[in-house]
Amino acid sequence: MPKPLTFGQFLRESRESKVATDRGFSLRKVAERAGIEPSYLSKIERDEQPPPGEAVIRQLAVELSEDPDVLLALAGKVSSDLLAIIRSRPRLFADLIRQLKSMPDHAVLRLVREVRDGSW
Amino acid sequence: MPKPLTFGQFLRESRESKVATDRGFSLRKVAERAGIEPSYLSKIERDEQPPPGEAVIRQLAVELSEDPDVLLALAGKVSSDLLAIIRSRPRLFADLIRQLKSMPDHAVLRLVREVRDGSW
DNA sequence: GGCATTGTGTAGTAGTTACTACACACTCAC
DNA sequence: GTGAGTGTGTAGTAACTACTACACAATGCC
Q1: B99 and B48 within one domain
Q2: Which one of A76, A95, B77, B105 is CB 3.0 to 4.6 Å from B72, fit for a cystine?
Q3: Would the pLDDT of B1 be above 80?
Q4: pLDDT tens digit string along B28-83?
Q5: Measured from the CB, is A28 under 7 Å from any atom of strand D?
Q6: Residue A94 sits in which domain range?
Q7: Which has more pLDDT, A94 or A3?
Q8: Do A73 and B87 touch (CB under 8 A)?
Q9: A2 occurs within a structural domain
Q10: Which of A68, A76, A10, A71 is nearest to B98 (CA)?
Q11: Partner-chain contact B86 A103, CB within 8 Å
Protein backbone atom coordinates (compact mmCIF):
# COMPACT_ATOMS: atom_id res chain seq x y z
CA MET A 1 0.00 0.00 0.00
CA PRO A 2 1.09 3.57 -0.60
CA LYS A 3 2.64 4.94 2.54
CA PRO A 4 0.32 7.48 4.15
CA LEU A 5 1.30 11.01 3.25
CA THR A 6 0.83 14.02 5.45
CA PHE A 7 -1.61 16.71 4.40
CA GLY A 8 1.20 18.93 3.19
CA GLN A 9 3.00 16.19 1.31
CA PHE A 10 -0.20 15.16 -0.38
CA LEU A 11 -0.93 18.71 -1.50
CA ARG A 12 2.57 19.23 -2.81
CA GLU A 13 2.64 15.99 -4.75
CA SER A 14 -0.77 16.65 -6.20
CA ARG A 15 0.21 20.14 -7.29
CA GLU A 16 3.65 19.24 -8.59
CA SER A 17 2.28 16.41 -10.69
CA LYS A 18 0.05 18.97 -12.37
CA VAL A 19 2.51 21.81 -12.71
CA ALA A 20 4.67 19.53 -14.82
CA THR A 21 2.21 19.83 -17.68
CA ASP A 22 0.35 23.01 -16.78
CA ARG A 23 2.07 26.17 -15.60
CA GLY A 24 -1.17 27.28 -13.99
CA PHE A 25 -0.34 25.06 -11.04
CA SER A 26 2.53 27.01 -9.59
CA LEU A 27 2.27 27.49 -5.85
CA ARG A 28 1.46 31.15 -6.33
CA LYS A 29 -1.24 30.57 -8.90
CA VAL A 30 -2.94 27.88 -6.89
CA ALA A 31 -2.74 29.99 -3.76
CA GLU A 32 -4.27 32.94 -5.56
CA ARG A 33 -7.14 30.88 -6.96
CA ALA A 34 -7.73 29.35 -3.55
CA GLY A 35 -7.78 32.81 -2.01
CA ILE A 36 -4.79 32.51 0.32
CA GLU A 37 -1.31 33.95 0.56
CA PRO A 38 1.44 32.07 -1.28
CA SER A 39 3.67 32.01 1.78
CA TYR A 40 0.85 30.38 3.72
CA LEU A 41 0.40 27.64 1.14
CA SER A 42 4.15 27.16 1.04
CA LYS A 43 4.27 26.51 4.74
CA ILE A 44 1.27 24.23 4.58
CA GLU A 45 2.78 22.14 1.81
CA ARG A 46 5.91 21.69 3.86
CA ASP A 47 3.89 20.88 6.99
CA GLU A 48 5.45 23.82 8.69
CA GLN A 49 2.01 25.14 9.53
CA PRO A 50 -0.99 23.05 10.51
CA PRO A 51 -3.59 22.49 7.78
CA PRO A 52 -5.95 25.40 7.06
CA GLY A 53 -9.65 25.57 7.86
CA GLU A 54 -12.36 23.63 6.11
CA ALA A 55 -13.27 26.39 3.66
CA VAL A 56 -9.71 26.72 2.39
CA ILE A 57 -9.28 22.96 2.20
CA ARG A 58 -12.39 22.78 0.04
CA GLN A 59 -11.04 25.46 -2.27
CA LEU A 60 -7.78 23.57 -2.60
CA ALA A 61 -9.68 20.37 -3.31
CA VAL A 62 -11.50 22.09 -6.16
CA GLU A 63 -8.35 23.59 -7.61
CA LEU A 64 -6.44 20.33 -7.43
CA SER A 65 -9.38 18.08 -8.32
CA GLU A 66 -8.99 16.09 -5.14
CA ASP A 67 -11.67 14.54 -2.98
CA PRO A 68 -12.59 17.04 -0.24
CA ASP A 69 -13.35 14.31 2.28
CA VAL A 70 -9.94 12.75 1.75
CA LEU A 71 -8.20 16.08 2.04
CA LEU A 72 -10.15 16.92 5.18
CA ALA A 73 -9.27 13.53 6.65
CA LEU A 74 -5.58 14.12 6.01
CA ALA A 75 -6.02 17.44 7.78
CA GLY A 76 -7.47 15.64 10.80
CA LYS A 77 -10.94 16.97 10.15
CA VAL A 78 -14.36 15.72 9.12
CA SER A 79 -16.67 17.59 6.79
CA SER A 80 -19.06 19.83 8.67
CA ASP A 81 -22.07 18.52 6.76
CA LEU A 82 -21.32 15.01 8.01
CA LEU A 83 -21.01 16.32 11.54
CA ALA A 84 -24.42 17.95 11.22
CA ILE A 85 -25.98 14.70 10.04
CA ILE A 86 -24.50 12.79 12.96
CA ARG A 87 -25.52 15.45 15.46
CA SER A 88 -29.10 15.30 14.23
CA ARG A 89 -29.39 11.68 15.43
CA PRO A 90 -26.39 11.10 17.64
CA ARG A 91 -27.26 7.76 19.19
CA LEU A 92 -28.25 6.21 15.88
CA PHE A 93 -25.17 7.25 13.99
CA ALA A 94 -22.79 6.74 16.88
CA ASP A 95 -23.93 3.13 17.20
CA LEU A 96 -23.74 2.47 13.49
CA ILE A 97 -20.32 3.97 13.00
CA ARG A 98 -18.82 2.15 15.98
CA GLN A 99 -20.28 -1.12 14.71
CA LEU A 100 -18.68 -0.55 11.33
CA LYS A 101 -15.32 0.42 12.74
CA SER A 102 -13.69 -2.95 12.19
CA MET A 103 -15.73 -4.11 9.22
CA PRO A 104 -13.76 -4.61 6.03
CA ASP A 105 -14.24 -2.10 3.26
CA HIS A 106 -16.20 -4.45 1.04
CA ALA A 107 -18.80 -5.08 3.72
CA VAL A 108 -19.36 -1.39 4.29
CA LEU A 109 -19.42 -0.81 0.56
CA ARG A 110 -22.13 -3.40 0.16
CA LEU A 111 -24.11 -1.52 2.74
CA VAL A 112 -23.66 1.74 0.88
CA ARG A 113 -24.86 0.13 -2.33
CA GLU A 114 -27.82 -1.54 -0.73
CA VAL A 115 -28.96 1.73 0.74
CA ARG A 116 -28.42 3.58 -2.49
CA ASP A 117 -30.24 1.01 -4.58
CA GLY A 118 -33.12 1.13 -2.19
CA SER A 119 -33.34 -2.55 -1.41
CA TRP A 120 -35.50 -1.52 1.50
CA MET B 1 -42.19 15.89 20.08
CA PRO B 2 -40.26 17.48 22.95
CA LYS B 3 -38.99 20.85 21.89
CA PRO B 4 -35.23 20.72 21.43
CA LEU B 5 -33.42 22.05 24.47
CA THR B 6 -30.11 23.85 24.39
CA PHE B 7 -27.09 22.21 25.93
CA GLY B 8 -27.38 24.37 29.03
CA GLN B 9 -31.10 23.85 29.44
CA PHE B 10 -30.68 20.12 29.08
CA LEU B 11 -27.96 20.03 31.73
CA ARG B 12 -29.96 22.14 34.12
CA GLU B 13 -33.11 20.09 33.75
CA SER B 14 -31.22 16.87 34.14
CA ARG B 15 -29.48 18.08 37.25
CA GLU B 16 -32.53 19.71 38.84
CA SER B 17 -34.62 16.59 38.35
CA LYS B 18 -32.01 14.74 40.39
CA VAL B 19 -31.36 17.32 43.07
CA ALA B 20 -35.01 17.08 44.02
CA THR B 21 -34.38 13.68 45.58
CA ASP B 22 -30.64 13.76 46.12
CA ARG B 23 -28.79 16.72 47.61
CA GLY B 24 -25.60 15.48 45.98
CA PHE B 25 -26.75 17.06 42.76
CA SER B 26 -26.38 20.70 43.70
CA LEU B 27 -24.60 22.75 41.07
CA ARG B 28 -21.55 23.00 43.27
CA LYS B 29 -21.35 19.30 44.02
CA VAL B 30 -21.75 18.29 40.42
CA ALA B 31 -19.19 20.86 39.33
CA GLU B 32 -16.73 19.59 41.88
CA ARG B 33 -17.18 15.97 40.84
CA ALA B 34 -16.84 16.95 37.21
CA GLY B 35 -13.66 18.84 38.03
CA ILE B 36 -14.75 22.34 37.07
CA GLU B 37 -15.51 25.62 38.84
CA PRO B 38 -19.10 26.10 40.01
CA SER B 39 -19.35 29.51 38.38
CA TYR B 40 -18.33 27.95 35.09
CA LEU B 41 -21.03 25.29 35.29
CA SER B 42 -23.53 27.95 36.30
CA LYS B 43 -22.82 29.94 33.18
CA ILE B 44 -22.92 26.85 31.03
CA GLU B 45 -26.30 25.78 32.40
CA ARG B 46 -27.69 29.21 31.58
CA ASP B 47 -26.09 29.16 28.12
CA GLU B 48 -24.15 32.24 29.03
CA GLN B 49 -20.96 30.47 28.07
CA PRO B 50 -20.52 28.09 25.16
CA PRO B 51 -20.43 24.39 26.07
CA PRO B 52 -17.17 23.07 27.52
CA GLY B 53 -14.70 20.74 25.85
CA GLU B 54 -15.28 17.08 25.15
CA ALA B 55 -13.53 15.85 28.29
CA VAL B 56 -15.69 17.98 30.58
CA ILE B 57 -18.83 17.03 28.70
CA ARG B 58 -17.98 13.39 29.23
CA GLN B 59 -17.49 13.95 32.94
CA LEU B 60 -20.85 15.66 33.15
CA ALA B 61 -22.45 12.81 31.24
CA VAL B 62 -21.10 10.36 33.78
CA GLU B 63 -22.22 12.43 36.76
CA LEU B 64 -25.69 12.97 35.37
CA SER B 65 -26.05 9.52 33.80
CA GLU B 66 -26.69 10.98 30.39
CA ASP B 67 -25.65 9.67 27.00
CA PRO B 68 -22.31 11.27 26.09
CA ASP B 69 -23.10 11.28 22.38
CA VAL B 70 -26.36 13.10 22.98
CA LEU B 71 -24.70 15.64 25.22
CA LEU B 72 -21.92 16.17 22.71
CA ALA B 73 -24.48 16.64 19.95
CA LEU B 74 -26.30 19.28 21.96
CA ALA B 75 -22.95 20.96 22.39
CA GLY B 76 -22.50 20.99 18.63
CA LYS B 77 -19.76 18.39 18.76
CA VAL B 78 -19.18 14.81 17.70
CA SER B 79 -17.24 12.30 19.77
CA SER B 80 -13.58 12.23 18.83
CA ASP B 81 -13.55 8.45 18.53
CA LEU B 82 -16.22 8.66 15.82
CA LEU B 83 -14.22 11.30 14.02
CA ALA B 84 -11.19 9.03 14.06
CA ILE B 85 -13.20 6.17 12.59
CA ILE B 86 -14.50 8.37 9.78
CA ARG B 87 -11.09 9.82 9.07
CA SER B 88 -9.63 6.35 8.72
CA ARG B 89 -11.84 5.68 5.67
CA PRO B 90 -13.21 9.05 4.66
CA ARG B 91 -14.77 8.23 1.31
CA LEU B 92 -16.48 5.14 2.58
CA PHE B 93 -18.03 6.71 5.64
CA ALA B 94 -18.80 10.02 3.95
CA ASP B 95 -20.82 8.20 1.29
CA LEU B 96 -22.64 6.03 3.77
CA ILE B 97 -23.57 8.82 6.12
CA ARG B 98 -24.80 11.09 3.34
CA GLN B 99 -26.90 8.25 1.98
CA LEU B 100 -28.47 7.73 5.37
CA LYS B 101 -29.13 11.40 5.97
CA SER B 102 -32.78 11.29 4.99
CA MET B 103 -33.52 7.68 5.90
CA PRO B 104 -36.05 7.22 8.68
CA ASP B 105 -34.79 6.07 12.04
CA HIS B 106 -36.23 2.59 11.75
CA ALA B 107 -34.38 1.94 8.51
CA VAL B 108 -31.07 2.97 9.98
CA LEU B 109 -31.82 1.00 13.11
CA ARG B 110 -32.42 -2.11 11.05
CA LEU B 111 -29.02 -1.56 9.52
CA VAL B 112 -27.42 -1.26 12.92
CA ARG B 113 -29.02 -4.48 14.05
CA GLU B 114 -28.15 -6.37 10.91
CA VAL B 115 -24.54 -5.39 11.27
CA ARG B 116 -24.47 -6.25 14.93
CA ASP B 117 -26.09 -9.62 14.47
CA GLY B 118 -23.64 -10.41 11.74
CA SER B 119 -26.15 -11.34 9.06
CA TRP B 120 -23.29 -10.96 6.63
C1' DG C 1 -29.32 34.20 64.60
C1' DG C 2 -25.44 32.19 62.98
C1' DC C 3 -23.02 28.79 59.95
C1' DA C 4 -23.29 26.27 55.79
C1' DT C 5 -24.58 25.92 51.39
C1' DT C 6 -26.50 27.72 47.27
C1' DG C 7 -26.24 29.96 42.70
C1' DT C 8 -24.20 33.83 40.30
C1' DG C 9 -21.33 38.19 38.91
C1' DT C 10 -16.92 39.98 37.53
C1' DA C 11 -12.42 39.70 35.89
C1' DG C 12 -8.82 37.60 33.83
C1' DT C 13 -5.90 34.40 30.97
C1' DA C 14 -2.97 30.78 28.54
C1' DG C 15 -3.25 28.39 24.44
C1' DT C 16 -4.85 27.51 19.90
C1' DT C 17 -6.71 28.55 15.22
C1' DA C 18 -6.40 30.53 11.05
C1' DC C 19 -4.66 33.26 8.84
C1' DT C 20 -2.21 38.27 6.39
C1' DA C 21 1.58 41.30 4.87
C1' DC C 22 5.82 42.06 3.14
C1' DA C 23 10.48 41.24 1.90
C1' DC C 24 13.99 38.38 -0.02
C1' DA C 25 16.73 35.39 -3.08
C1' DC C 26 16.71 32.51 -6.94
C1' DT C 27 15.70 31.05 -11.73
C1' DC C 28 14.27 31.45 -16.36
C1' DA C 29 12.99 33.51 -20.71
C1' DC C 30 14.27 36.35 -24.29
C1' DG D 1 20.93 41.58 -18.07
C1' DT D 2 16.50 42.73 -16.80
C1' DG D 3 11.73 41.82 -15.83
C1' DA D 4 8.48 38.25 -14.64
C1' DG D 5 7.62 34.61 -12.01
C1' DT D 6 9.06 31.26 -8.48
C1' DG D 7 9.22 29.48 -3.61
C1' DT D 8 10.29 30.80 1.14
C1' DG D 9 11.54 33.51 5.65
C1' DT D 10 10.05 36.60 9.23
C1' DA D 11 6.76 38.95 11.84
C1' DG D 12 2.50 39.81 13.47
C1' DT D 13 -2.46 39.39 14.87
C1' DA D 14 -7.65 39.09 15.59
C1' DA D 15 -10.75 35.91 17.16
C1' DC D 16 -11.91 32.03 19.47
C1' DT D 17 -11.58 28.07 23.04
C1' DA D 18 -11.69 26.55 27.38
C1' DC D 19 -11.31 27.48 31.20
C1' DT D 20 -9.74 29.56 36.71
C1' DA D 21 -10.16 32.51 40.82
C1' DC D 22 -12.53 35.07 43.93
C1' DA D 23 -16.21 37.70 45.84
C1' DC D 24 -20.99 38.32 46.80
C1' DA D 25 -25.97 37.98 48.06
C1' DA D 26 -29.73 34.92 49.05
C1' DT D 27 -31.60 30.85 51.17
C1' DG D 28 -31.84 26.86 54.34
C1' DC D 29 -31.10 24.54 58.64
C1' DC D 30 -31.21 23.75 63.66
Answers
A1: no
A2: B77
A3: no
A4: 999 999 999 999 999 999 999 999 999 999 999 999 999 999 999 999 999 999 99
A5: yes
A6: 89-116
A7: A94
A8: yes
A9: no
A10: A68
A11: no
